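can u do me a favor
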């Protein structure tokens, strides 16, 4: 099948590469000439495990082609995915400028009957708006389809290849049958393709992300209470996660959720509710709670340092918003580092994949260490922000002998509090005792 994917970011690139891997002829188009130039040489602009091999293999076999000519990419396509960014507008709503610009190009360049798929996360009613824009210029029949994407950065290829389910909002038999054929290789193990109307598909994506953000914020608040009452959130998490009504996923407390999706999608859904004269009070609270949580690591560090941040030098392990990605959009590391710099500290950061992204966002405001141990040189304390595997089992004696003070603030609960105390660290984490005060006493 001849497929076009417009937008080759985290989503579009994975979608294009995975569809090519199953035999479709895929053209990936993007207006970013630097990105396309790199991709044509098999250089992947993002860190995503497994993606490079897919791109290289399928490009060498000519099933995957990259271009900046979006119009040419659309000509001849039977299925066109719109996978461009939908960043938050000033009022929190999704900015649909890119989506609608692509719709206009599609209308002008359709050369045959096609299915037009909104893959970007877009508010209810967007497919309808895309339809109207395409229809202004289109000379051929086309069918709208909403196919929200549920991949997780860091496991995106696996998630796309083996989805829990595929959600398809479609309103014609043609769209349903084309999309069923396209997705057949991905659901051979019996995972469902869930067909629905387009507004329900659009809403499903927001509801999923809002639910996951809510679980995280709920656990962050429970963690805060655990600290006050002397409970251990890791045990509480296991205790509730084994209840089949609750399940174990997305119950890990941390430094606040970040990334390109949860923050913006929660805001956009709140905005959609306002536009329709209603209030999502749970999500309003989630949003506020997450803003507070993003201050927690700074507050814990400040407490550990006896209120004296000014003049200290702090090591930060992890810049990416989570492990296995280089994405720093809305990352808790940014909130922490900005607060540290504003309070008069200096920062040395390490990240296995996001150093280039850190430099792009934070410039020379901080030092970028080549290894996690280098970051500790001359530091008064270590703060762990991202749960990279290589931070899970470090050389604790080396950490202790390199730090000027044995203070570790662990935003991901990577270590046993008991062990850290016995090793002589002043250790604080999220939702667990002992706290620094206990250790000091
Ligand atoms: N990143 C994720 O984990 C994830 C998961 C599910 C859904 N989504 C959604 O998918 C969409 C894309 O997200 P992303 O993270 O891949 O974004 P991204 O910012 O990484 O990539 C978007 C790409 O679109 C390109 N683009 C913008 N305007 C264009 C135009 N007019 N023509 C061609 N290309 C254009 C940009 O140059 C960029 O390369 C968003 O709506 C997002 O909410 C993202």
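np, heres the sequence
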């Amino acid at each position: 099948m001849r497929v076009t994917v417009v937008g080759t970011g985290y989503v579009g690139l994975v979608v294009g590469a995975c569809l090519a891997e199953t035999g479709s002829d895929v053209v990936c188009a993007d207006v970013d000439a630097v990105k396309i130039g790199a991709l044509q040489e098999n250089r992947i602009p993002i860190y995503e495990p497994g993606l490079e091999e897919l791109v290289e293999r399928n490009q060498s076999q000519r099933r995957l082609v990259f271009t900046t000519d979006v119009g040419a990419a659309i000509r001849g396509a039977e299925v066109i995915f719109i996978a461009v960014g939908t960043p938050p507008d000033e009022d929190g709503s999704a900015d649909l400028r890119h989506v609608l610009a692509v719709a206009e190009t599609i209308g002008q360049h359709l050369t045959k009957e096609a299915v037009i798929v909104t893959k970007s996360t877009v508010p209810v009613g967007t497919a309808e708006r895309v339809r109207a824009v395409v229809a202004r210029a289109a000379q051929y029949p086309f069918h709208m389809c909403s196919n929200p994407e549920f991949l997780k950065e860091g496991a995106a290829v696996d998630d796309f290849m083996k989805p829990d389910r595929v959600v398809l909002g479609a309103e014609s038999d043609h769209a349903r049958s084309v999309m069923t054929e396209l997705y057949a290789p991905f659901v051979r193990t019996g995972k469902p393709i869930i067909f629905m109307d387009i507004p329900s598909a659009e809403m499903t994506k927001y509801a999923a992300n809002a639910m996951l953000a809510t679980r995280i914020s709920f656990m962050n608040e429970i963690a805060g209470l655990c600290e006050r009452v002397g409970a251990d959130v890791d045990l509480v998490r296991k205790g509730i996660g084994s209840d089949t009504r609750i399940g174990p996923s997305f119950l890990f407390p941390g430094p606040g959720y970040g990334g390109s999706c949860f923050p913006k999608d929660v805001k956009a859904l709140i905005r959609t509710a306002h536009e329709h004269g209603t209030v999502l009070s749970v999500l309003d609270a989630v949003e506020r709670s997450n803003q507070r949580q993003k201050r927690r690591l700074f507050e814990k560090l400040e407490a550990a340092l006896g209120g004296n941040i000014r003049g200290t030098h702090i090591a930060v392990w992890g810049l990416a918003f989570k492990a296995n990605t280089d994405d720093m959009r809305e990352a808790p590391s940014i909130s922490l580092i900005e607060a540290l710099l504003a309070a008069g500290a200096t920062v040395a950061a390490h990240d296995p994949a996001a150093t280039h992204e850190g430099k792009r966002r934070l410039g020379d405001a901080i030092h970028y260490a080549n290894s996690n141990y280098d970051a500790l040189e001359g530091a008064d304390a270590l703060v762990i922000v991202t749960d990279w595997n290589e931070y899970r089992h470090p050389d604790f004696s080396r950490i202790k002998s390199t730090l000027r003070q044995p203070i570790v603030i662990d935003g991901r609960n990577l270590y046993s509090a008991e062990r850290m105390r016995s090793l002589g660290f002043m250790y604080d984490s999220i939702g667990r005792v002992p706290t620094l005060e206990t250790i000091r006493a």
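The longest strand covers residues 2-6. hope that helps!!
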